[in-house]
Amino acid sequence: MTATPSAEAGTHALQRVLRIRDGMAVTVGIVIGAGILRTPGLIAGYLGDARLILLAWIFGGVVVALSTLVLAEMAAALPEAGGKYVYARHAWGPTMGFLAGWSELLITRGFSGASKAVVIAEYVRILAGGRGSLPILSASVVLGFFVLHTRGLKASTAFQNVTTAIKVLVILMIAAAGIWAGDLAGFEVAARPPSGPSAGLLAFALAYQSISFAYYGWEDAAKMAAEVRDPGRALPRILVGGSIAVMILYLLLNVAFLAALTPEEMAGSELVAQDAIAAVFGEAAGTVVVLASLLILVSSANVNFLGLPRVAYGLGQHGLAPRAWTLVDERGTPRNALYFIALWIGALALTGAFELLIRFMMTVAISVDTMVLLGYFKLRAARPDLERPFRMPGHPWLPALTIALYIAILAILVGTQPALTLGAGGMITAMLLAGWWTARRLEKA
């Protein structure tokens, strides 16, 4: 049952207060973070050539842009809290809705939130000369975000708007500095094709998992559809505009990195931005970049705490999660859902293995996203009378191409990383069984 406004504490409704600029800040805020800071070194090691690196980032951006258009139609037609969970539930029923929602809570966004908290803690330690306990610092980061979000949606979105503006300015400064002062080192060296176990399709698969992690979150603004003003008009602009802005910023950053460093120098680096700026301006400038990267991560991690409680809220509304998660306090925050998210991200933040975590996370995410995007055709066929303020251009060929790309990428992941995909498949199967059991219980209730 949907929460309705009430004078009693804990039973308030979500409020439509978000504007297009707020949604754009959410999109840019969550996407640009740990991915672009940590993965360029991994991708350079996998591909070994400046042109291949840029082409891979462009390919990732094209996939995101196409996916955004598909999702924008469903988001505008179904402006409910929860994002992809909503579209999966309407298209395929409660079992698939359960899978989409819980996979985000437990794996995709939960793991990404935890990884950002850990990286923030790592950068704090760098600035503190290596002092401090990483687990305690990571837990403190999660606690800080929890406290911020108990202040309500207006406070958290105001924080997001300010930090996103700072983030974009910092990224443009880093990109301009690298391009202006660099000597195009990465473009002048001969290509070094990968060899050994990471060659060929496996190199592409590993690089794409990292790139898709860096882009992931492009759809997060849709989770707050129930709080967006005029969602039919605003959501497509938020989703499409945000994804285009991110792709442009990513390409600028990678050109800057390759202007200052060769792919070999980038390979394995945990913070390529610091290495690139230090290479052309000295170590002191590299330290400034660490501080700037910390600001970028704070903005990105904040959106995990904005979006995930809304997914939990949407699941709880339809009996696929505890009903207590639908209780909204007087400041517009699903408070109980926020408690769960903070505890889960805090627990995950105590772990490590960054590369393995993102590979596992993205294998699950790409699998679930394929199912969600297929819901576009199911909704077109099953609900032709649904009001669609925005329609996907190029129907049916462009959405079909988008889904074909996802299926091809999944086939490559399965063929090149069978053990990893077996583990991801086991996790998805477990969630499907839990969703089936929950759906049957709801039918009998």
What is the terminal-to-terminal distance? Answer: 13 Å
Helix residue percentage: over 70%
Kindly provide the radius of gyration, computed on alpha-carbon positions and rounded to a whole number of angstroms: 21 Å
Q: Are there runs of 5+ residues with pLDDT below 50, and where?
A: 1-10
Strand content: under 5%
- Gross CATH architecture: Up-down Bundle
The structural class is mainly alpha
Question: What is the chains' assembly state?
Answer: single chain
CATH superfamily: Amino acid/polyamine transporter I
Detailed description of the structure:
By secondary structure, the protein is mostly helical. The protein has a single domain (20-440), classed as Amino acid/polyamine transporter I (Up-down Bundle), CATH 1.20.1740. It has helices at 20-31, 34-47, 50-77, 84-92, 94-127, 134-149, 153-181, 185-188, 200-215, 231-260, 263-266, 272-281, 283-317, 335-348, 354-382, 397-416, 418-444. The radius of gyration is 21 Å and the shape is globular. The relative contact order is 0.21.
Topology (elements, then pairings):
Layout lengths: L19 H12 L2 H14 L2 H28 L6 H9 L1 H34 L6 H16 L3 H29 L3 H4 L11 H16 L15 H30 L2 H4 L5 H10 L1 H35 L17 H14 L5 H29 L14 H20 L1 H27 L1
Summarize the structure.
By secondary structure, the chain is mostly helical.
Features:
17 helices, mainly alpha, 445 residues, Amino acid/polyamine transporter I
